[in-house]
Amino acid sequence: MSYQSSLKINDISKNCEQLTSVDPEKLMPLPWDIKEGPWAKIPEQTREKYACILDDTCVLNIPQPQSKEEEDALVNKFLAGMKKLFSKDNNWAFLAMLDTSMEHCARCNTCAEACHLYEASGRNEMYRPLYRSEIFRRIYKQYVKKEPLSGLRNGKIDLNWRTVARLGELAYRCNVCRRCAQTCPIGVDNALITREIRKIFSQEMGIAPPELHEKGSMLQLKVGSSTSMNALVAKDNVGFIDEEFSEETGYEFQTPWDVEGADVLLLHNAGEILAWPENIAAFSIIFKAAGISYTLSSDLAGYDSINYGLFYDDVQFARTAILHAQAAAKLGVKKIVMAECGHAHKAFMVIADRVLPPGLQIPRESFLSTLRDIVVNDKIKLDPSRNDFPVTLHDPCNMSRMMGIVKPQRDIIKKICPQFREMHPHGPNNYCCGGGSGYAIMNRNTIPEWRAKITGRKKLAQIFDAFSDSRGPETRKYVCAPCSNCKGQMRDLFERYDLLEKESLTYGGLVELVVNAMTDVKPGYIKWGEE
C-alpha cells in the first residue's frame, strides 16, 4: 500500500493503490476507558472487484476499470454529470445554492473545526470539509468552465479515473449533517456539494450504495417499503403490536388504517415496526388517549416515510415524495404528521416543496409540535416520577439544525423527566449521531468499524459527558433519540462498546418516555437490558 500521511489537494490524482489511511492512534480520545479492538480490513475480494483506492473503507462500490476505455468512460460520464449539475434545466431545485457555494468560499477552514469527522479522525485531511469541495471546485472551473490556468488560484487538478473514483468515495466520508454550513461565515454549504457529487454518481453514472438504491428506494417503489414489507405484512405486524402492547400495558387500543376524512395521516418510518415496535405502540396509545382523529395508510409507500433519495438522487427522491403525498390526498386528511424519523422530516417537510405539484401540497407537521400540544396542555395524564432516572436528549440534525425544531421536545422532556440534562452543544449546534446520510443502515466491508470509531465518536463523547455524574452500571441512563436512523446508530454504538451492561445505558424515542409516564398504562413501559 502507498499511504499519504498528510494529504494535499493535488494528491487526489496520484497513481497509488490507496491514497490514505486513518491511524487509530490519532483518533480523538474518549472520556471513558473503552477498549477499541483492531481496525478492520477491506475484504480482498472487494478490493479485486471495486476501486477501493481512497482509504480503509469502501462505501460506494465503484467497479474497478479493466481497460483504458473503461477508465476514460468513468471520467467522461463524471464530466457529463457535472455539466448537468450546473444547468438550470437539469438541476433547478439546487442550482442557486450550489452556485453560491462554488463561487464564494473564502477557504478560511472554519468548517473544519465544526466537523465531527475531522475531529474524531485525529484531524485527518481527507475529512476536512473543504478538501472534497475544493477538489470538486477546481475540476469544475478547469474542465467545465474552462477558466484559464492563471485564474485558478490554487492550481489545476489532474483529472484521471483515480481522481473521479476517490472524489466519489470522499462524498461518502461525510454525514451531510450541515454543521459546516451553519458555521461558515458566508454560508458556503460543503454538505450540499457533497450530496451533489453523490448525485452525479447515481443519476449519471449509475453508481450508488446498494443499501440506498437497490435495497432502499427501488425496493420501496416496488414493494411499498425499504424493509421489504408490503402493505399486508405491515398491517399484520402492526396488528400484532396492538395486541401485544395492549396486553402488556393494560391499555386497549387498535391502530386505525385507511380511514377516509381523518384529521391526521400519521407517517412512520416502517423500520420502527420491525426494530422498535414499542415506538409504533406508543404513538397509538398517545393519540388514542388524546382523542386525535388519525389513520395510517396502506397505499404504496404510504406507511413508510423513508425517502433514501434524499441522500443521493433527486429522481428517486421525487418519486417517493409524490407517493407519500398521493396517499394522504387519497384519504382526504387535513394534515400529515411525521413520526420519529429525522431524514423523513427534511425530505417531506422541506425538500418536497420543490417537487410536489400544488394539488399535493398537503399541510405537514412534525410529531414534536403535535406531542408538545398533547403534553403541555395536559390532554393525557402523566406522572413524572415514573421517569426519575437520568435522561439526555440527542437532537437529530434534520429536525434541529435543518428545520429549527428545538423547543417542543424540551418542553415535553422537562415536564416528564426530573433528571433531564443537556448534551453540549445541543439544539442546532448538536453533533450528528454518526449514522446520518444513510450510514445507519450500512454494514458492508469496514463500514461498521468506521461508524463506531469515526462517525459516531463525537456523539459518544457527548453522551459520556452528559452522564458524567452517574458513571457505572448502578444507575440506569436513557438517551432520548427521536429518530429511527439515530436509534440504529445508537444501538450499534452501544453494542459495539458493550455499554448496556457496563454503564446501564440505553436509548429510545421520545414517545416511549411519554407513555412510560402515563398513569393510564401499567408502569415500566421502557425496558432495560436485564428485563
Keywords:
four-stranded parallel sheet, 8 strands, globular, mainly alpha, 531 residues, 44% helix
Protein topology:
Elements: H1 44-49, H2 68-85, H3 88-91, H4 95-103, H5 110-114, H6 116-120, H7 129-144, H8 161-170, H9 179-183, H10 190-204, H11 213-223, H12 231-249, E1 264-267, H13 271-275, H14 277-289, E2 294-295, H15 314-331, E3 335-338, H16 342-349, E4 364-366, H17 367-376, E5 391-393, H18 397-400, H19 407-416, E6 420-421, H20 447-455, H21 457-466, E7 477-480, H22 484-496, H23 499-503, E8 505-508, H24 510-517
Parallel strand pairs: 1-2, 1-3, 3-4, 5-6, 5-7, 7-8
Helix pairs in contact: 2-10, 4-10, 7-10, 11-15, 12-14, 14-24, 17-19, 19-24
In short:
The chain has helices at residues 44-49, 68-85, 88-91, 95-103, 110-114, 116-120, 129-144, 161-170, 179-183, 190-204, 213-223, 231-249, 271-275, 277-289, 314-331, 342-349, 367-376, 397-400, 407-416, 447-455, 457-466, 484-496, 499-503, 510-517, and strands at 264-267, 294-295, 335-338, 364-366, 391-393, 420-421, 477-480, 505-508. With 531 residues, the chain is mainly alpha-helical.
Task: Give an overview of the whole structure.
A four-stranded parallel β-sheet has the order 2-1-3-4. A four-stranded parallel β-sheet has the order 6-5-7-8, sandwiched between helices. It has 531 residues and is mainly alpha-helical. Helix 16 links the parallel strand 3 and strand 4. The chain is 44% helix and 5% strand. The protein has 24 helices and eight strands.
